[in-house]
Amino acid sequence: MPIQYLTADAVRAAEHATGDLLANGTLMRRAAAGVARVVLGELTGTGGCYGRAVGLVIGAGNNGGDALYAGAILARRGVRCSAVLLAPDTTHSGGLAAFRGAGGRITGALPDTVDLVIDAVVGIGGTGPLRPAAAAVFAGVTVPIVAVDLPSGIDADTGVVHDRSVRAAITVTFGAYRNLHLLAAPRCGRIVLVDIGMAPTDTPDGLFSLTDAEVAARWPVPGPADDKYTQGVVGIVAGSQRYPGAAILASGAAVSATSGMTRFVGSAAEAVVSHYPEVVAVDDLADAGKVQAWAVGPGMGTGDRALDILRTVLAGDLPVLVDADGLTVIARDPDLVRGRTAPTLLTPHAGEFARLSGAAVGADRPAAVRALAADLGVTVLLKGRITLVATPAGRVYGNDAGSSWAATAGAGDVLTGIAGSLLAAGLEPEIAGACAARVHALAALRASGGAPIGASALLAAVRPVIGNLRTAHGGADGHITTG
Ligand SMILES: NC(=O)C1=CN([C@@H]2O[C@H](COP(=O)(O)OP(=O)(O)OC[C@H]3O[C@@H](n4cnc5c(N)ncnc54)[C@H](OP(=O)(O)O)[C@@H]3O)[C@@H](O)[C@H]2O)[C@@H](O)CC1
Ligand SMILES: Nc1ncnc2c1ncn2[C@@H]1O[C@H](COP(=O)(O)OP(=O)(O)O)[C@@H](O)[C@H]1O
Ligand SMILES: [K+]
């Protein structure tokens, strides 16, 4: 099952569906126990619990209640707990009584020396940036912050990070991930999901992400009866004589991502073959031979020749991925793809997205990518640190790259080659996009090792990443029987 991310409304609905567990406070007690467990784990790992100091920043709602009950547990374990109440008149009364009863102190500001701070200003009921009084409490905090449910000041549904917001080392959430845990993952730190006994239900505005095990299981591998043609031949249309780089990167990525065969069309055919002799490369589309999917666009130019190629390819009934220059051509004439019935995947970065949709992506990235996919009737993959892939029906898969080393010239050409070859192998566009984004991100991480990379290094890491994923998740690599 893909990992599911819910909107705040869907979380509330799932909480209400538990009935008594919500009403009698069981859910909150379980949530608090989870927060306390994580904090105790952190303290234990950094020298022990007894006598350590924890500061709590408590807002007006139930998020503060979670933290106060957690503080009570911590205080009973010998942790010195001090809570700053941002809204003393509306502080969760049961939580406050428990906290005080266990020996927790109420203070006007965080003590000068604390080992850890708990952010319980707001959870899913929060709106907008941290209010100034809350922001002032966090100013100057240098110790790790454990966020209850979410780092306050980040929008639960859109992941918008307001300028006054918390950056957490750990985020402890309950029952199900919320959208922001994917969309603002870099601000959440390590995310711990605590089981509180509520069952999440599907939600039209929620998100999904594939697990590594799912990516590994879906990755195409040749079977005993396969030959170079049966696995899906991908045709790459990219680059030019003047700009052969995109052609080489996209073709190399296609060669690396799946077995079988890669064809190439374009004036950089010679350069491509000099790097990848296994590619069957021609100058003209008419000479290309049979493919099972096309990946068209990087560095191909935006003139009449590009338009002709796109017209021809998109008029056919094969799966097609369009990227980069190809998207600029489509932005001028969206009817080239609108309502196309064969699998179609557009892979814009934010600038290309704005060209296609007529407006900047804006704050609500999932809504924007959903709207463009619905408008054009094709699958859209919006690139970035958090890649989002939306189907025309509105299902959105996301991938946090885990680092930003892929933000380098030519990295998108590599993604085109990977995703194109997965389309050729028969994967649905959204699954091809999501699997490609995952492997692309892992390849950037592996290639980087903490240092800057170029797209060639990322490309070189694609094969080992696929191998590691498959090995880690049970992919058999075959054996030879000897006598
Ligand atoms: N229900 C349950 O049993 C369970 C609930 N759970 C927990 O409850 C959380 C949801 O609780 P919630 O609905 O009470 O909202 P919550 O996020 O605490 O606070 C909202 C209040 O904060 C204020 N405020 C708003 N924006 C602000 C800002 N920018 N900066 C500062 N303050 C701001 C505003 O109040 P105002 O000041 O406007 O009166 C608003 O009313 C959820 O995330 C989870 O942690 C779990 O324990 C599981 C069981
Ligand atoms: N900040 C970032 N963190 C992680 N990955 C990123 C980031 N920015 C871009 N990427 C990824 O790097 C690739 C860049 O693609 P693109 O912008 O088309 O570059 P180019 O056109 O130079 O090939 C995409 O796969 C994108 O998702
Ligand atoms: K919080």
Q: What is the average per-residue confidence, as pLDDT, rounded to a whole number?
A: 96
Task: Give the amount of beta strand, in percent.
Answer: 15-25%
Query: Given the helix and strand composition, which structural class is it?
Result: alpha/beta
| CATH fourth-tier homologous superfamily of the largest domain | Ribokinase
Q: Can you count the beta strands?
A: 19
Strand order across the largest sheet: 13-12-11-14-15-16-17-18-19
Small molecules bound in the structure, each named once? ligand NPW, adenosine-5'-diphosphate, potassium ion
Here the CATH topology of the largest domain equals: UDP-N-acetylmuramoyl-L-alanine:D-glutamate ligase
Subunit structure: Homotetramer.
Family: Belongs to the NnrD/CARKD family.
Pfam families: Carb_kinase, YjeF_N
Domain YjeF C-terminal: 211-469
Q: Brief description of this entry?
A:
This protein is of the alpha/beta class. It has two domains: about 5-205, YjeF N-terminal domain (Rossmann fold, 3-Layer(aba) Sandwich), CATH 3.40.50.10260; about 210-470, Ribokinase (UDP-N-acetylmuramoyl-L-alanine:D-glutamate ligase), CATH 3.40.1190.
Structural features, described:
The chain is α/β, with parallel strands linked by helices. Helices cover 40% and strands 16% of the residues. The chain is built from 18 helices and 19 strands. The structure holds ligand NPW, adenosine-5'-diphosphate and potassium ion. Potassium ion binds next to strand 5 and strand 6. Ligand NPW binds next to helix 3 and helix 4.
